[in-house]
Design goal:
The complex is a heterodimer of chains A (about 110) and B (about 180). Chain A is mainly α and about 110 residues long. Chain A is built from three helices and no strands. The longest helix of chain B has 26 residues. In chain B, α1 runs antiparallel to α2 and α2 runs antiparallel to α3. The N and C termini of chain B lie far apart (about 70 Å). Chain B has about 180 residues and is mainly α. Classes of the chains: A mainly alpha (about 110), B mainly alpha (about 180). At the A-B interface, α1, α2 and α3 of A face α1, α2, α3, α4 and α5 of B.
Chain lengths: ~110, ~180
């Protein structure tokens, strides 16, 4: 059974399955948690899963050209910047709503102003 | 040091991959299942660190460094501050999950199985050994082929900073 794990770090499928698992965990958190900040954390998990898939594709496919491996890294870098922007604005919105409604739970956000 | 681990018979990279993958999955589950949100934030930091390790194994040390800087250094701190600003003691801790948590769990397990089956069933084009993404190649690619996304992202980050400050600042003018 252990021989199945041989060279697992050189296997594209292993990275992609791992990325899928991480994405699903993030999706579950986004659907199931009531706290707005927990939902944002779940979104970060999903973005990280996508980054892992990008890095795996860059490392294992089209390796005839060194620039292509770098291309995946560049895309991952841009995703990270977008994630940082999303976290900034998302958390600022949560804090702004918290000031109005005095709760971080999304199912009590039934109106934007009162 | 030997190329392979003496007793198990597979390489150090594989052992590291398994360890990082296990840490990542367990801490990611802790992020979504942990009732105490501060602990969920701590688990998220460990999850990001394990991912950085996976990036190194996959041959992207620059992305691993960026992961540590951006996610562990910036986003985690931001999330922890937001948790501290919005934590309410009176909130009922038993009601962490929405009522649709069980259907959501079923749906996401199906999603994970679907992704796994698709990945395994697909014939990927030629796979060769891990290729290291050198920083020089990244720089050349970023500033030749990806100049427009780079500039757009810089504008996006500026807009996010301005928007974040505007949204989070207290409205003094109305209070007076």
């Amino acid at each position: 059974m252990l021989s199945a794990l041989n060279l697992i770090s050189q296997n594209l499928n292993a990275y992609l399955v791992l990325s899928g698992i991480l994405f699903s965990i993030g999706a579950f958190g986004f659907l199931a948690r009531r706290n707005a900040i927990s939902m944002l954390m779940s979104i970060e998990l999903m973005l990280n899963a996508v980054n892992l898939a990008f890095i795996a594709f860059g490392a294992f496919l089209y390796s005839s050209n060194a620039r292509h491996a770098a291309e995946a890294s560049v895309i991952a870098l841009i995703v990270m910047a977008a994630a940082a922007a999303e976290a900034t604005v998302g958390l600022a919105i949560v804090i702004a709503i918290y000031r109005n409604r005095k709760t971080p739970l999304v199912d009590e956000y039934d109106a934007m102003r009162q | 040091m030997a190329d392979t681990i003496p007793l198990l018979g597979f390489g150090w990279n594989d052992l590291l991959f398994l360890v990082f993958a296990a840490i990542m999955v367990v801490t990611a589950l802790a992020v979504v299942l942990q009732r105490d949100i501060i602990r969920a934030g701590g688990a998220m930091i460990i999850c990001f660190a394990a991912l950085a390790g996976l990036y190194v194994i996959a041959g992207s040390p620059v992305i691993a460094a960026a992961q540590v800087l951006v996610y562990i250094g910036a986003i985690s701190v931001l999330v922890l501050f937001a948790i501290m600003l919005t934590q309410v003691k009176s909130a009922p801790r038993a009601l962490v999950f929405q009522t649709q948590a069980v259907p959501a769990a079923v749906a996401t397990v199906v999603l994970a199985l679907l992704i796994g089956v698709t990945v395994v069933a697909t014939d990927w084009p030629k796979q060769v050994a891990t290729q290291v993404a050198a920083a020089k190649d990244m720089a050349v690619t970023l500033f030749n082929d990806y100049t427009l996304p780079f500039e757009v992202v810089s504008v996006l980050l500026l807009a996010a900073v301005v928007g974040g400050v505007f949204l989070a600042k207290r409205e003094r003018a109305e209070a007076e």
